[in-house]
Amino acid sequence: MDGAELTGKKVLITGASGFTGRHAVTYFQGAGADVVAVVRRPDVYSFGKNVDVYVCDLNNKEQVRELIQEIEPDYVLHLAGKNSVPDSWADPLLVLETNVMAVLYLLDALRICPKARTVIVGSRLKYTPEPGRIPQPPHPYSLSKALEEMVSLSWKSLFGQQIMLAEPGNLIGAGPSTGICSLLARHVVACEQTGKTEAFRLSGRDNTRDFLDVRDAVRAYATLLVHGTSGTVYPVVSGVERSLGEIADLLMSMTEAKVPIRWDGTSSGPDGAGKQEEMSELRKLGWQPQITFEASLRDILSDVRTQQGRTTG
């Protein structure tokens, strides 16, 4: 997709100040869209010129309704929510309310915009119950994402709304990510700057995961907004499994510092997110990853070095 279909369109992005949200604002603005960045707090991130920023509590039904009535968006990219598994154990009701009710309030408000197309961004960590068995979600976060999907598909069925669901794997890139690649990159930079000797602890070297650059994911979301089939769940993955050992080795090759790592535990199998066949539906729409894994790691390292330089300078 060349982005021309987005020129002059109103694109509302929730969770705009988050890791993916910042990249999404940049992409859609570059595509010529009229971007509306929805945030909970106005002081978290500065978007610069030509971006309309709206403060809205997505768990406040009236605020959400007023937002949609005022903007009347053509496209909605829903990124907001709580995505921490540990936090979901600490306060499961808050995570369920924040994730599930926000989707319901948003989709219900969008009933006044029948032509609006919405992408709800879920997670590969969602819980998928087995038919005929008592539900046994691994954690409250996975339950919240499963419920998000259920209510989204139900709203599409009940009210005929244009709703697509995206399920990203492990997104990586520059910015405020808490993913393993960013955490390890921060350890590398700390070793460069301070000679840190404390080892970074990782599980088995052979543990594999699917990693996708966040900018490629944003392009996938844009493709779904314009060309996706309503009521369809789209995995957003690279299709390539990479081991923790490979990540560590690549980052080590990008620095001259001595970076201690401690390998704990045993290796497990792949996370199942990188199957090539799962990418087929997105590929049919013309999307494919463009940014290499090595380039993503270099961008992460460069960003961390810049941020740490500002902190220590």
UniProtKB/TrEMBL annotation:
Residues 11-234 form the NAD-dependent epimerase/dehydratase domain. InterPro entries: Epimerase_deHydtase, NAD(P)-bd_dom_sf. Gene3D superfamilies: NAD(P)-binding Rossmann-like Domain, UDP-galactose 4-epimerase, domain 1. SUPFAM superfamilies: NAD(P)-binding Rossmann-fold domains (SSF51735). Residues 262-281 are annotated as: Disordered. It comes from the Bacteria. Pfam families: Epimerase. PANTHER family: DTDP-D-GLUCOSE 4,6-DEHYDRATASE-RELATED (PTHR43000). Belongs to the NAD(P)-dependent epimerase/dehydratase family. This is GDP-4-dehydro-6-deoxy-D-mannose reductase. It comes from Paenibacillus polysaccharolyticus.
